[in-house]
Structure formats: structure tokens, C-alpha cells
Amino acid sequence: MGLRSASEFKEGLRDGREVYYRGEKVDDVTTHHDLGIGVEHVALDFELAEDQEHRDLMTWMDLSGGERVSRYFKIPTDTSDLLNRREMIEQSTRLGGSVVLLIKEIGTDALFALDVVTGHLDKHAGGQYNPRVKAFLEQCKKKDLSLAVAQTDVKGDRSLLPSQQDHPDYYVRIVEERTDGIVVRGAKAHTTCAPYVDELIVLPTRAVKEEDSAYAVSFAVPVNAPGLKLIASPFGSPPVSEFHHPVSSAHRMIDTLTIFDDVFIPNERVFLKGEWQYAGPLANTFVEFHRFTAASYKPPLCDLFIGAAALLAEYNGIAKASHVREKITKLITYTETVRGLTLAAAHDCRINDNGTAVPNIILTNLAKFHFANNYHQAVSWVQDIAGGLVVTGPSEEDMENPETKGYIEKYLGGGGGVSAKNRLKAINLVRDLTASTFGGYNELLAIHAEGSLETQKITILRDYDVDRCLKLAKEAIGVE
Ligand SMILES: Cc1cc2nc3c(=O)[nH]c(=O)nc-3n(C[C@H](O)[C@H](O)[C@H](O)COP(=O)(O)OP(=O)(O)OC[C@H]3O[C@@H](n4cnc5c(N)ncnc54)[C@H](O)[C@@H]3O)c2cc1C
User: Fold this and answer.
1) From CA 17, how far away is CA 428, in angstroms rounded?
2) Does residue 151 line the site of ligand 1, with CB under 6 A?
3) CA distances from 106 to 30, 211, 274, 374 (A)
4) Which terminus of the chain has a smaller tally of CB atoms within 10 A, N or C?
């Protein structure tokens, strides 16, 4: 088949999946008043693949299968593959109103990691997982499947290992081994896009010890599998209108608490089953790819910050003020540092022993860390330029009411003859991006998604060649 249309993708979601939203079971995610926004948003992935202007970027002629397929499924083997992937993620996010689509990006990050790690496992520990991973990737490619990744376990007490917890199900685990597969139980949190993808890929969150080998488990599962239940987060829902929420009324991500209530996984879909030594490497290799995806989808939102700040500087008549120019310069510096580090990570990639190109780990983590660590500061620069109306402005209904309309038009205009309506539209953009529930979501996403700040610091310190610098210091003082 190769490529699916957006309507074929939506049809595939009507498969009896068990999704809950605000206390009710959802009949059809595609027509649901809130989840449907997520569906329409991600359908863009399929539309872009059909669109002449974006087809070459978003798709690829797979010579092994002899058909055109989504480029996300191409395992990167060199810098140009990584640059293409980065560009594809940045472009589709920009066209998605600055919100990443994430229905193939994260899933392929997981598959690339599984390919690398199961390759090692099979070679050194006598497994037979790598052919299964490769077969599943082929299936995704041929059927043009959409994927979410459930890695983050609910975790209970963070200071304890899985088997030391109050109950044994704080981390997803194998509860039964059968000749034809395994049965898994537990829950994962924050599974982005899960209600409206075809498949979930499950990975371990962390390294575990031998006594935790039941928790060293990875597999792929269709979202409508019996026993799989999704409780969707209603955070920020539903947006009021396009006027009040110019971005989030059409573009958003929806995340779930993902319950595995004794779900059967057939052998051919099991990618790790108790080999505890490989849980940590799998979790880490996934983020090596996934933080590159993360740093690739961040710049469109930052660009929108720069644009909104520049527009409101103009509308507020302060564009020439030195502090405003300085804040816009800092926003540009912030954005281009993230973009530049990601480009550099692709150029300075490492070719793994299985031929996969892995983006430079330190540069990738620096890009993600720089974005997350400075995000709230960047928000404050935009909010400073925009002014207090971001949270005190009148509503769309008052703009339309003949009794109040005239006052709003008279009093809320700005510099350069801008109308009150256009100025409020720009102000509402800043509200939606930074001071709404969607804005709050973005702040949490910046801090936690793709791993919280400490995880990037740990990786940077672990991978940096500190010994080289130590040697230089010793040389400088003449010590052996
Ligand atoms: C918007 C969004 C989307 C996401 N999408 C996905 C997704 O699609 N798939 C997925 O699998 N995950 C996803 N995540 C999960 C994300 O990776 C986690 O939120 C992140 O790893 C932090 O985990 P946590 O939320 O459990 O917080 P915690 O791990 O509880 O972190 C809270 C604080 O505790 C600290 N901490 C945690 N453990 C320890 C410890 N042992 N010792 C000392 N300090 C500790 C952390 O550093 C942090 O400061 C998403 C998260 C967000 C916010």
C-alpha cells in the first residue's frame, strides 16, 4: 500500500478502541468534540505526503519495497538523512501551527533504538528480537501506520526500583509467559497522541536490576487490543474559539494514562522479554533519537514567539525602544541556538555498528536543555512586550455586542493605526501560546517532555570527555 490518505487514516481509528474522556467512553475519536481536534491536527501528516509541494520532503522511494513510503520510516544512515528528518519535523510542525504532529516521529525514534539495541542483544546474548523489529518496521512502512510511544511508567516512589514499590504494578511488567506470547500489566503516563494512532510501542523507562527482569519489557500493540484502556487528559479543553485560541482551537496534542489490564502480546511483537541488562541501553538509545526529534520541533514555536513579539512591538508603538529590540534579539539568539545545535548534531553524527546514524549526543542534549532551561524566560520576554491585555482583554462576544463594540474599537487600538480587533488578535495569540491552559501545557512540555532537565545534564556529563580537559589542566600546572 505505501501511503494512506488522511481519510483512510481516520477510518482506521474507528476500530473499537477503549478511550475515556471526562468520565465517558468515547464512541468515535474522529468525531469527538475535543479528541477530534487532535485527529484533524495529525491528519496533516498524510495530507503533506500527498501534497506536490511537500511530497519529496515527506516521502521516500523505498527501493527494497519498490514503492513510495513515508520518509519517517527511513532508518538514517548519514548526515543528509538526519538533516532531512530534522527539516521534515520542523516543516510539518510549522504547518501544524507550531504544534508537532508526533504520530510517526516518536514511533520511529523508538524503532531505530530497538533496531540498534536488539541487534546487540541478539549478537551478544543470543536473542531473536532484531528480525521481529525489522518485520514490524516493514509493516509500519507498508501500511503507513501511525505510532505513539508509551515509555514513561507511572513510577510510584521515584527513589525505589520497580520491585521495591508498594505494589508491583507501578511499572509495566510481564505477568504471564505463554508459548505464543506474553501477558503484560501496569500503566504508562503521558502517552501523547495515543487516542488517535494505530499502534503503541512500549519501552522500558529505566535501567533495572536482575530482580526486576519482569519489567524489562518492550513490545508493539495495536490500540484496540483487548485490555488496553486509554484515559485521555482533558487539560486545556475544549478551546473557546479561533479568536480566543488562534492556535489551540485547531492544533493540539492529547495525552493519556495508558492502562495495560492484562494485555496479550504475541511473540512476533515482543522486542524485549526479561533481558534486564538491555532495559537501560534501550531507554537511553531511544532518547538519543528522541531528543533530536524534540530539538527539531521546538524552533517553529520559538519563531512564532519572535513574530508575535515583533508584531505587538509594532502595534504598541514600541518597536524602536532599546529594551524591546534587546528582548527580540534575545528571542532570536534563543531560537537559533536550538536550531543551530540540532543542525550541528546532524552534521556531527556517529555511525553505529549497524550503520544507523545517531545524532551527536552532547549537542542534541544541549539543544534540548537550552530550550527547556530558558523557555520560561523566553515566555516572559514575549509577555513583557505584549502587555497586560494578554490576561485582561475583552471577549469576542463583547467585540460583537453593539452596546460594547464601539468602546472596544475606540479604546483598544494601537500604534500605526492598527484596529482594536487586529491588536486583540495578536494579543490573543500571545495569550494562547503563553497564558492559556495551552500555554501552561507548553511550559510543562518544555520542562518534562523528552525527559526532565536533570536527565539532559546527566547525559551531557556522562558523554563529555572530561578526562581530556583534566589532562590539559594538569599539563598547565606541570603535574603528571
Ligand atoms: C507534554 C508531555 C508529553 C509527553 N509525552 C510522552 C510520550 O509521548 N511518551 C512517554 O513515554 N512519555 C511522555 N512524556 C513523559 C516525560 O518524558 C516525563 O514527564 C518526564 O520524563 C518526567 O517524568 P515524570 O513526569 O514522571 O516526572 P518525575 O520523574 O516525577 O520528575 C519530577 C522531578 O523528580 C525528579 N526525579 C525523578 N526521579 C528522581 C530520582 N530517582 N532521584 C532524584 N530526582 C528524581 C526529576 O528530575 C524532576 O525534577 C511527556 C511529558 C509531557 C509533559
Assistant:
1) 36
2) yes
3) 21, 30, 24, 24
4) C
Atom 31 of ligand 1, residue of closest alpha carbon = 452
User: How confident is the model over 51-91, as pLDDT tens digits?
Assistant: 999 999 999 998 777 899 999 999 999 999 999 999 999 99
* Residue 361 domain boundaries: 298-477
- Look at the chain and report how many structural domains it folds into: 2
Q: Report the amino acid identity of residue 273.
A: K
Q: Are 140 and 269 in contact (CB under 8 A)?
A: no
Cα distances (Å, whole numbers) of residue 206 to 212, 217, 287, 441: 11, 11, 11, 25
Q: Which three cell numbers stand for residue 63?
A: 527501493
Residue type for 362, please?
A: I
- Tell whether 224 and 310 lie within a shared domain: no
How much distance in Å is there from the Cα of 416 to the middle of ligand 1? Answer: 46
Render the burial of 181-203: b for 16+ CB within 10 Å, e for the rest. Answer: bbbbbbbbbbbbbbbbbbbbbbb
Give the closest residue (by CA) to ligand 1 atom 25.
Answer: 448
Please enumerate in sequence order all residues whose Cβ is within 8 A of that of 338, keeping only pairs 6 or more positions apart, or say none: 295, 298, 299, 302, 367, 370, 371
